[in-house]
Design brief:
Layout lengths: L1 E7 L3 H13 L6 H9 L10 E10 H7 L9 E2 L3 E3 L5 E3 H6 L2 H4 L3 E6 L4 E23 L4 E4 L4 E3 L5 E3 L8 E8 L4 H10 L4 H8 L3 H10 L26 H10 L28 H6 L2 E3 L6 E8 L12 E5 H11 L2 E24 L5 E4 L2 E4 L23 H4 L3 H23 L4 H4 L8 E9 H11 L6 H15 L3 H12 L6
Antiparallel strand pairs: 1-2, 2-18, 3-15, 4-5, 6-7, 7-8, 7-15, 9-10, 11-15, 12-13, 13-14, 16-17
Helix pairs in contact: 1-2, 2-17, 7-8
């Protein structure tokens, strides 16, 4: 296993001393004061020191033990609203109570931290982590969310910070805006890079009319005719003054009103052959086709989604039959948006409430809740595919088996090899990772991120360094202590205080 400190309070002794000063009436920084508080059981004073760990290469069995320490989760209240890929809104509590077959079809808004762009991904699970103290955060845009003090927010500088480390005036990242509504970005693309409005529209996932509208709003119009300089005009310079056929047509059309031809009167109308699968999409709008959505299984009115954006392609490989909701959701996801910073104007204590945590699949370990970019904590087996071999580094062998006879070790390895073979075979047969995972054993390695304040950390170490605890979690507890000591000299001194008052449960 590998344990790293992701973040920690820079000056734990100073912070905790000032917290103790609220009880004793003096604000002096003193290691002696902290030691006295911890020794007397007044450990609430050390809750203001916090540390976050990145843990890699532990078993799923150990993860099950860690989840019993509910204090180690980053949690939001059950009424936190998340937006799904279908454009609907769900509370976290509703996701928790959702049947598994519906969870499988649900994707949530999240953020690619490498570029700040909003995307969508599956969530792997929702955990109820108990009843805890929650605080409401409000921003200048009117966004509000209730979380525990340990929950992490993405800040303007790209770093994750706990709510306990934030204060009024800090800027956190919130729900995004479409790229084309960013004047500087639009000016750069339209003027500096000389992209056409159609090219910009393709980048943003919207129509050309939308880009034209925002170019006008921002006052970015180019001089009339400037876009055609150096380019051959569509009519190749022909006009009614210099081209006889155009002059003849112009004279012929004088005084006439054009006739608008619609529907079946059009020469390209394909609705006459109702049985033909290649008929144009508009036929469905008039005929109110009843079908089955290929995305969610809805039975009712369906539409065709053009996968390659070519409205003249109507073969089955280029179109997808979707319900109205799924069709709209796909087009909304194609609109490129990125997160923006916003200032915190209030942080208010709201009492004790049931709280939940969402575990996201994929590489984006975050989700957008109530407009805020929020962190999650545990790697998922549900959507993460593993390349497993019979003899690989994908599982953890307990120390008791390592010290046992060759026969015992051989039997354990046979079990792991069988599980790996079955898992890879199921994937090759076309099964989804979330279904194939059920053959994986508790020994499978996983990664997670967890955080706790010093009081919780002391409690965890007291319980998990006991000889009655499993050897793996004992090793983890001592590895976390060693990692905390390595943060800084002050953290090393702080850990000396904690370890001097460690009462290991035998």
């Amino acid at each position: 296993m590998e344990v790293k400190v992701v973040s920690a309070t820079e000056n734990p002794i100073e912070v905790c001393s000032l917290a103790a000063g609220g009880c004793y009436g003096k604000d002096n920084v003193s290691e002696k004061r902290i030691r006295s508080c911890v020794k007397s059981g007044h450990t609430s004073t050390i809750e203001f020191a916090h540390i976050d760990f990145k843990i890699e290469g532990v078993s799923r069995s150990l993860l099950a033990q860690l989840t019993r320490h509910r204090l180690m989760s980053f949690c939001v209240s059950g009424d936190t609203i998340v937006r799904t890929g279908r454009g609907t809104k769900k509370t976290v509590e509703e996701l928790y109570n959702m049947a598994e077959q519906y969870q499988d079809m649900t994707i949530l808004r999240c953020v690619d931290e490498s570029n700040g762009m909003i995307s969508y991904d599956h969530f792997s699970n929702v955990f109820y982590t108990g009843d805890k103290d929650v605080y409401e955060v409000e921003t200048a845009f009117g966004y509000k969310v209730k979380t525990t003090a340990d929950h992490q927010f993405l800040c303007e500088d790209g770093k994750w910070r706990r709510l306990a480390e934030l204060q009024v005036g800090d800027r956190v990242m919130v729900n995004g805006e479409p790229l084309y509504q960013d004047r500087d970005w639009l000016k750069k693309k339209y003027w500096d890079e000389d992209l056409s409005q159609a090219e910009i529209a393709t980048l943003c996932g919207v129509g050309t009319d939308c880009i034209r509208k925002w170019v006008r709003i921002f006052g970015l119009q180019k001089p009339i005719g400037s876009w055609s300089i150096g380019k051959e005009p569509p009519n190749k310079g022909k006009t009614k003054e210099n081209y006889a056929p155009m002059q003849k047509t112009s004279e012929k059309m004088k005084g006439r009103q054009p006739k608008i031809i619609r529907g079946e009167e059009r020469s390209d109308w394909k609705g006459k052959d109702a049985a033909n699968s290649s008929k144009r999409c508009r036929v469905y709008r008039y005929n109110k086709r009843t079908g089955i959505c290929e995305n969610c299984g809805f039975r009712g009115v369906t539409e065709f989604h053009h996968i390659n954006k070519n409205l003249d392609e109507y073969t089955t490989e280029y179109i997808k039959e979707l319900c109205v909701s799924c069709h709209r959701a796909i087009h909304k996801q194609e609109i490129k948006e990125r997160i923006i910073p916003n200032e915190i104007i209030a942080i208010t204590y709201k009492g004790i409430e049931p709280v939940y945590d969402i575990s996201m699949a994929g590489s984006n370990h975050n989700f957008i809740g109530n407009g805020f970019v929020l962190h999650n904590c545990v790697e998922s087996q549900r959507y993460c595919k593993y390349e497993l071999t019979a003899d690989g580094d994908w599982y953890v062998m307990p120390e008791a088996i390592q010290n046992a006879s060759d026969e015992v070790q051989r039997e354990f390895r046979v079990g792991m090899a069988t599980a790996a073979t079955s898992y890879m075979a199921l994937l090759d047969m076309g099964m989804r990772a979330e279904d194939a995972r059920y053959v994986l054993p508790e020994a499978t390695k996983t990664n997670l991120t967890c955080g706790m304040n010093a009081r919780e950390f002391l409690h965890f170490v007291q319980l998990r360094t006991s000889k009655r605890a499993s050897k793996e979690i004992q090793d983890l507890a001592w590895a976390m202590v060693a990692a905390a000591r390595g943060v800084s000299e002050e953290w090393n001194q702080f850990m000396d205080i904690l370890m001097d008052n460690l009462n290991v449960i035998d």
